[in-house]
Write a structure and sequence with these properties.
Elements lengths: L3 E3 L1 H6 L1 H9 L4 E3 L6 E3 L5 H11 L7 E3 L3 H7 E2 L5 H4 L6 E7 L6 H4 L4 E5 L5 H8 L3 E5 L16 H6 L2 E3 L10 E4 L5 E3 L2
Parallel strand pairs: 1-9, 2-9, 4-7, 6-10
Antiparallel strand pairs: 2-3, 3-8, 4-8, 5-6, 6-7, 10-11
């Protein structure tokens, strides 16, 4: 069948069938407020494993796009000193918190007690909110290579594993800023 390339409008016309495909384990490339991400349903362990294999990233944790700030407060330990970071969402930040429960598949964070969460300042966040559970989001590249800025940059292993791409043209953004709030507050250098 191959990878389908969709515009935002085409995605929205058949949104419910695309969301059903994600529930069934589809991988998709999506735009954000920074760069293109590749993701899947963060509660579907098989889909996350398929994503790990395609990215050739066997162990490093993945971040998620949270469906809402309420979801973050329900599933993550947000220290008093870190609450002001929630006010910066939606935005180009990935916030790392300790988790309260098994809110994502074990493959997302390799059974770690921490999780990176984002809410991009982008319409894709509305899709995640409607889906009602988090999406894995990681740069659309094979580990160690440049992230996809345009469709032509997509590496072959990801092309083969991806079910569909929502494409908005070339992105010139930079990955989100990572703030680790698990023990104090520190910016993580990429």
């Amino acid at each position: 069948m191959g990878m389908k390339v969709l515009t935002k409008e085409e995605f929205h016309i058949n949104k419910f069938s695309h969301l059903d495909a994600l529930k069934d384990g589809a991988l998709f490339i999506h735009p954000t407020d920074t760069i293109y991400g590749i993701g899947c349903d963060a509660t579907n362990n098989d889909a996350v494993k398929k994503l790990r294999d395609a990215k050739q990233r066997p162990s490093m944790p993945f971040s998620v796009i949270a469906p809402s700030k309420e979801w973050i407060l329900e599933h993550c330990v947000v220290p008093e000193s870190g609450k002001h970071w929630l006010d910066k969402l939606p935005g180009a930040y990935t916030l790392i918190f300790k988790t309260k429960n098994d809110c994502v598949a074990s493959e997302v964070n390799n059974n770690s007690e921490t999780l990176g969460v984002r809410i991009p300042d982008h319409w894709v966040s509305d899709v995640v909110a409607e889906f009602g559970r988090p999406f894995v989001t990681t740069s659309a590249n094979v580990a160690g290579r440049q992230p996809m800025a345009q469709l032509e940059d997509l590496h072959e292993p990801l092309k083969k594993a991806t079910d569909f791409v929502v494409y908005e043209g070339k992105k010139a953004g930079r990955p989100s800023t990572i703030i680790d709030l698990t023990d104090g507050e520190k910016v993580v250098e990429r």
